[in-house]
Amino acid sequence: MPTYEFNCGSCGNVFEKFLPITSGSAYDCPNCGSSAKKKISGGIGLIFKGAGFYINDYKKPEAAEAEKVNS
Question: Is the pTM of the predicted complex or chain greater than 0.70?
């Protein structure tokens, strides 16, 4: 089940709910009790490929030099 983000038009409260995909697009705000609408989001498109995420992208330059010397 995905987590959806809701926005209340009355009080401006933003909250999340863990709901099934078949749930409706409106939900009661826990802050004021009025109807809140489901926010539209694109989600995240995070893909890990290759020999290693950390090794390829976020290693400090001095650590890479030390690895070359030790090899």
Answer: no
Residue recorded with tokens 């995070």 = 46
Burial 27-39 (b: 16+ CB within 10 A, else e): bebeeeeeebebe
Strand pairing class (35-38; 14-18): unpaired
| Distance (Å) of CA 61 to CA 14, 42, 45, 57, 66 | 41, 34, 28, 11, 9
Q: What is the pLDDT of residues 19-70, one digit of tens each?
A: 887 877 778 999 999 999 888 775 666 666 666 555 555 666 666 566 666 6
- Please give the Cα distance from 54 to 60 (Å, whole number): 10
Tokens of residue 19, six digits = 């709901």
Residue where the block lists tokens 């070359």 = 68
